[in-house]
Specification:
- By secondary structure, the protein is an alpha/beta fold.
- The protein has a domain of about 230 residues: TIM Barrel (Alpha-Beta Barrel), CATH 3.20.20.70.
- It is built from 15 helices and nine strands.
- Helix 8 links the parallel strand 4 and strand 5.
- Helix 8 runs parallel beside helix 9.
Length: about 400
């Protein structure tokens, strides 16, 4: 009994010391981060994270008004939590056609969108003849080539700023995408190798190998591409694995300075997935992970999607986020189709009620837009200038 009390007292002191270290805003050791995510009082943890957010990012909370273009749902990965991917179906086209892509983009322009978010499955042509046939008929051999052509088409014909999230990207494809995309993205999701075991979340998902995803994120740094990444929580990872994933992101940013945004995204169970019976992470669990992400990377933009917590999205502000990500007035969230976007007017009202200013940004964050010659191709100068305001947020119409 006395030993147990002594152990508990020692843990409490260690947690208090970790909170004190966190409050200095100079990052934190892995051991301290693990103590915080596992044992700290949620209110105290979030208070420190929110204070760091205010210190490093101020009281502006941003979002991007986007249109969502799901170029293809075909994917060679079979992740246990995904409803976006699909196998070929009779009567269903393998990819969106150029006309379909343009129609969605033009609807976005009419609704005041600035970003064209391209999402798609990973390398479907590797396993599906239907994908190869569609591409070959249009003069392409790989999905990433078709993506680059569609991003260039949207940029040229509509002026929307593309941001593509296509999975793993070899260096040459990334270099071409850089010519039309103001930023790129790839969710790290997790560095856990356990999740690749049979029956786990990343079983039968060759593109979810952590080393391959880290290599893609690193290559973006080498090519000076403003990059979005993050972790997915609730897919079977441990708290220590969450912490390790966040530190892997922090290390790549320390080396290259290119991570414009870190997402902390919660898993949401759905009836038609392999993990349908898995539990969703609670809002408190999400808050604790966001807070630790903020403490590990106090100077970075930390984001969590408001539609995945429904009416609880002000709780994300309490935990230290400074961005809500892309919100579309036109298209649904094809990754989580059951979770409707909040109306932007409601998002603004509730954000302001919490004492923050909601600002629209572009698909490239203001701090990267300030050094636009370093982070984007020269061909993007005119389209960016059409949308950038004097403070590097979206121009107010």
């Amino acid at each position: 009994m006395a030993q147990s009390a002594a152990v508990q007292s020692g843990l409490a002191r260690a947690v208090d010391q970790a909170l004190e270290a966190a409050s200095r805003g100079q990052g934190i050791a892995r051991e301290d981060a693990l103590r915080l995510i596992e044992s700290a009082d949620t209110r105290a943890l979030c208070a420190i994270a929110a204070a760091l957010r205010d210190r490093f990012k101020g009281r502006i909370v941003s979002y991007s008004r986007k249109v969502f273009i799901p170029l293809t749902h075909l994917c060679r990965d079979y992740c246990g939590y995904c409803t976006f991917r699909s196998d070929p179906k009779p009567g269903v086209a393998a990819y969106m056609t150029p006309d379909e892509v343009l129609a969605v983009a033009q609807a976005g322009v009419r609704a005041g969108c600035k970003e064209a978010l391209f999402s798609l499955g990973d390398q479907p042509e590797q396993i599906f003849p239907e994908a190869r046939e569609f591409l070959r008929a249009r003069g392409f051999s790989r999905t990433l080539e078709y993506l680059a052509a569609m991003a260039e088409l949207v940029l040229r014909e509509t002026g929307l700023l593309p941001h593509s999230n296509p999975g793993l990207m070899p260096a040459d494809d990334m270099a071409r995408l850089r010519r039309s995309n103001v930023s790129l993205g790839l969710m790290l999701e997790s560095t856990s190798l356990r999740l690749r075991a049979k029956g786990a979340a990343h079983w039968r998902a060759p593109d979810k190998a952590p080393a391959l995803r880290l290599r893609t994120i690193e290559e973006a740094g080498r090519q000076r591409i403003a990059f979005t990444t993050g972790i997915l929580i609730g897919i079977g990872e441990t708290p220590a694995e969450r912490v390790d994933s966040l530190f892997a992101i922090a290390e790549l940013h320390r080396r290259y300075g290119h991570i414009q945004e870190v997402l902390v995204q919660p898993f949401r169970a759905k009836p038609d997935i392999r993990m349908a019976s898995a539990d969703d992470p609670s809002v408190e669990d999400l808050q604790r992970t966001i807070a630790v992400a903020r403490i590990i990377m106090p100077e970075l933009n930390v984001q969590s999607p408001p539609n995945l917590v429904r009416d609880d999205f002000p709780d994300l502000l309490t935990a230290g986020i400074n961005d809500f990500g892309g919100v579309s007035p036109v298209t649904k969230d094809f990754i989580n189709p059951e979770a409707a976007w909040p109306q932007i007017a409601v998002l603004q009202q509730r954000t302001e009620h919490c004492g923050f200013e909601l600002r629209e940004r572009l698909a490239i964050y203001p701090e990267f837009a300030r050094s636009v010659d370093e982070w984007t191709d020269a061909a993007l100068a005119a389209p960016l200038a059409a949308h950038l305001g004097p403070d590097f947020y979206a121009r107010v119409q």
